[in-house]
């Protein structure tokens, strides 16, 4: 078991025990923030730059996301979640804590959620929801986008895999939450005015759910989040999108 103190940098002697910098925590490690201690008990997901853990603090479960210090974009997610928390958002996952262990990783702690919408759809007969269920899901997921936009941020990656149902233990099992804001961008400046389009900026998002402007590699706006949301609705209602098997 290794202990990480998020309130302070690791000592040079401790850092030298690792093969290189940007070491991510592992299962059974202890991660400390300025006033809390988290025990990592399982991996929920992982990618090229980070991992998401099931973490326990004083008997309560959370999701702890850790990313390599030098390549982390967690500051964007933390900014989104802090704003959403201040505004009392009901359909955006709640931020509980965050910190950094220099020079290895940055982390944030959010409410632990249940299965994502992509997995839930695949568990249904014919891989789609009934009309009534799809309508209820659509209302929740649209409200999440409305809350995000009211925080002056765009998602730029709306997809079923970025929505998850809450847990019954938290009395949130009848509500869907939006999470993962790694591609989020502020669309209002400090004066509350819309930022000007930057024109062609390259691809952003997930190909299957990308808007027309995303495929044209143009700067995205609120309408593009809603267009991606509409494609999600088509998929959970019909079971697939018309271009599912299109390559290129």
From TrEMBL:
Keywords linked to the UniProt accession: ATP-binding, Nucleotide-binding
Transmembrane feature ranges: none
Annotated ranges, domain Protein kinase: 38-248
A single GO molecular function term of this UniProt record: protein kinase activity
Binding site for ATP: 65
Domain of life, source organism: Eukaryota
Protein name: Protein kinase domain-containing protein
Species of provenance: Brugia timori
């Amino acid at each position: 078991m290794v202990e990480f103190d998020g309130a302070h940098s690791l000592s040079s002697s401790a850092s030298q025990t690792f093969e290189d910098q940007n070491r991510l925590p592992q299962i059974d490690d202890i991660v400390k923030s300025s006033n809390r201690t988290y025990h990592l008990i399982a991996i929920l997901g992982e990618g090229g730059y980070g991992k998401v853990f099931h973490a326990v603090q004083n008997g309560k479960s959370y999701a702890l996301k850790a990313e390599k210090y030098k390549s982390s974009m967690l500051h964007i997610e933390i900014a989104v979640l802090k704003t959403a928390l201040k505004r009392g958002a009901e359909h955006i996952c709640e931020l509980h804590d965050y910190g950094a262990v220099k020079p290895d990783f940055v982390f944030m702690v959010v409410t632990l959620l249940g299965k994502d919408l992509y997995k839930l759809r695949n568990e249904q007969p014919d891989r789609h929801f009934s009309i009534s269920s799809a309508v209820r899901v659509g209302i929740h997921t649209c409200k999440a986008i409305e809350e995000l936009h009211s925080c002056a941020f765009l998602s730029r990656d709306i997809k079923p895999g970025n929505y998850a149902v809450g847990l019954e233990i938290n009395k949130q099992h009848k509500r869907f939450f939006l999470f993962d804001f790694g591609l989020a961008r502020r669309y209002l400046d400090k004066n509350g005015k819309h930022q000007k389009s930057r024109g062609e900026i390259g691809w952003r998002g997930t190909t299957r759910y990308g808007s027309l402007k995303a495929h044209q590699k143009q700067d995205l706006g609120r309408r593009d989040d809603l267009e991606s949301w509409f494609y999600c609705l088509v998929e959970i209602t019909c079971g697939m999108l018309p271009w599912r098997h299109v390559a290129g």
